[in-house]
Design goal:
Elements lengths: L12 H6 L15 H5 L1 H5 L5 H9 L3 H5 L12 H5 L6 H14 L5 H13 L7 H9 L10 H6 L1
The chain binds iron/sulfur cluster (2 copies).
């Protein structure tokens, strides 16, 4: 069984989370595990466990939560949030944790690479003439090959 070091806990972390959109109801969690049973990521990787992330956050283990790669595995499918009997906004909570992780400088390399692509090109996947030919063949209109407006926003 994994040991949790509460000496490293930040006592104000749970309260700070509860005051932000997505964190309002985390203290209402009564550990029924409906979220875990609903989660398609947990189904393929047992190490991903939304309830565990909520408990760690409630214990104040800020660094363990924000530096974890696991929060980035959440696909924001909302299956857990729709089913939580306690109204915990689990999907929104995961988004809150991801945003805080970015602010603290914890961004997995793959996510950082996607961010850089959006900054530079305005989209993650470049569109070229070959893609547009395939689109046209399928009866779809061509897309612009550059996305300068989004790149400027990023
Ligand atoms: S479904 Fe809601 S109440 Fe049940 S364990 Fe998950 S967060 Fe907690
Ligand atoms: S929103 Fe995230 S945590 Fe919730 S079920 Fe979907 S993948 Fe799992």
């Amino acid at each position: 069984m994994e040991r949790i070091d509460l000496d490293a806990a930040d006592p104000g972390f749970a309260e700070a989370l509860a005051s932000q959109p997505g964190g309002e109801r985390i203290a209402a969690c009564f550990m029924c595990r409906t979220c875990v049973a609903s989660c398609p990521i947990s189904a393929v990787d047992r190490r991903f466990h939304p309830l565990r992330i909520i408990r760690l956050a409630l214990y104040g283990l800020k660094q363990e939560v924000l530096a974890s790669d696991f929060i980035w595995l959440c696909s924001s499918c909302y299956a857990c949030q729709e089913r939580c009997p306690q109204g915990v906004k689990i999907s929104d909570f995961m988004t809150l944790l991801k945003n805080l992780a970015v602010k603290e400088g914890h961004v997995p390399r793959g996510i950082r690479a996607q961010l850089d692509l959006i900054r530079e090109h305005g989209r993650i996947y470049p569109i070229d003439d070959f893609d547009n030919k395939k689109r046209n063949k399928a009866g779809l209109p061509s897309l612009p090959t550059s996305c300068d407006v989004v790149a400027k926003l990023a």
